[in-house]
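Translate structure to sequence.
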């Protein structure tokens, strides 16, 4: 709703400015400039709003929430410029305050990840990260737990090498120092 109102206001502003130019030029500029200016301004605003959504949204995250993965690049026939400059419509962000070791599970950690999307409200998801094998699994409603409360039937997937999640979750191991 906000984008629709903002688009309309940008169009009104562009039409007003072009009307002022039309009046100051003593009607030497064609009157057709007014609706064209409004239309071009509204299209430009929508393109800007669409293409900068990811950067603007990620920049507003609090310090306790860290971006860990971008969604796939989106190309759309409704937005032909995305074939040259694909946009990002969702991303995953780790809430660092929720990271906790999974009891009796070695190098596994339980954490909360936000799935933030442009066209849907943010969803909080529970994940388990295995630092030893660099794998992740989502805890779903169908996930079964053993008698100690540890998830037992997780569907593990390999963590992408460019993902920051292991850097943020897994403890830093001491690097061996070279002998002098």
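Result:
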């Amino acid at each position: 709703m906000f984008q629709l109102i903002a688009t309309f206001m940008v169009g009104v502003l562009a039409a007003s400015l072009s009307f002022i130019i039309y009046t100051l030029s003593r009607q030497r500029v064609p009157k057709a400039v007014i609706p064209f200016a409004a239309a071009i301004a509204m299209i430009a605003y929508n393109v800007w709003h669409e293409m900068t959504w990811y950067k603007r949204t990620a920049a507003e995250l609090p310090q306790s929430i860290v971006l860990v993965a971008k969604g796939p690049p989106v190309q759309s026939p409704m937005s032909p410029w995305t074939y040259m400059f694909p946009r990002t419509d969702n991303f995953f962000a780790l809430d660092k305050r929720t990271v906790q070791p999974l009891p009796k599970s070695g190098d596994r950690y339980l954490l909360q990840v936000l799935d933030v999307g442009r066209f849907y409200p943010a969803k909080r998801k529970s994940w388990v990260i295995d630092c030893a094998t660099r794998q992740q699994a989502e805890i779903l409603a169908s996930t079964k737990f053993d008698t100690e409360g540890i998830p037992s039937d997780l569907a593990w997937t390999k963590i992408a090498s460019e993902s920051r999640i292991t850097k943020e979750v897994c403890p830093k191991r001491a690097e061996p120092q070279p002998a002098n």
